Amino acid sequence: MKIGIVHPQLLRGGGERVAKAICDAFTNCEFISYENKLDVKNVRLLTLPFKMPIGRKAKQTLILYDLARKINLLRREYDLLITTGVDLPLNTDIIYWQNPTDLNLFYIRHSLKFFYDALSYTFLVNNKFVHGSPKLIIYNSLYTKIHVEKALKINSKNTVIYPPFSSYSPKGSHDKDYVVTISRLDYNKNLQVIPFISSKLQDAKFFIFGYTQENTPILLREIHKNAKRFNVSLNVCNGLCDDANINIIQNASKEEIQNILSQAKVYFHPPFREPFGLAVLEGMSADLTPVVYKDSGSYYDIVKRTYGFAYEKNVEAVEKIRYALNKYERGVHEYTKLFNDENKFKQKIKDVIDTAFAIKESLALRKK
Q: What's the CA angle centered on 359, arms 356 and 360, to 5 degrees?
């Protein structure tokens, strides 16, 4: 069985980890992408029909349009075509749906930064090349499933398979008022609210671990501006640092992250509508108490069914973090056993995909 995994841009992030785990579950699998920033060899690179200097969001929209034009041709070359990085109902066999924002126009009405998501949705879904007919949808969370099915006006029995997370050790002193966030250093992740929260918790230290992106300089400028506005100290480092109110460690190793996690008490997820929240599970696996944004999969699928605190406003986040620091208890890592490590995820996804392929073959035989 030859499998094609459509993931338009192979960058560093949770979505790419999921795509790689799906592909690794099969012996004959290759990625179909327009950009490869990972150490992945089995990649078939597609190209846009023209080149022009454009911004990141505009580029993403053009990639989606070009992919929509090519998707039916690609289907003929693979036994199963699976999309993992395209949150639109393209005409593939299976879609692993990871992000509802492209479809839910609620987000568009509340924030101009999702303008290109709206453009992608209205332009592509109404385009003649998109038929809105993936044969099977697998969702990364109940939160994503609810929002997508509301937007598409469907009520399905499509399954939810939580993505795999990388665990950390829960061992350590956990005796310092450290608050940790693990995230791509991406402007859209709303990390720029942390200076305000830090200003209300002067006895705590905040650590942000993340890989740099194209728009990281924009984010760092905003954080610098807010740190100055709220009178908190800030360090941006390429190795461990801990002498400021906020310490941003770029491109850290797992060992460096573990070093701080073993001393910390709280994992903080900024106010962002995260579809699931792999980093929240990573923090919990190290025995950190999670404080997450309520309108997110991090709350709906993780904290609500396990342990932790949720907030709606930034001032509320301050109080939740303060309480979690003062009342810290060990044992949070035990809750992460309810979720998927890489081996569990691979087995679950393989079972579903093997069944889907068997059904596809059976239907093909009936047509002969």
A: 85
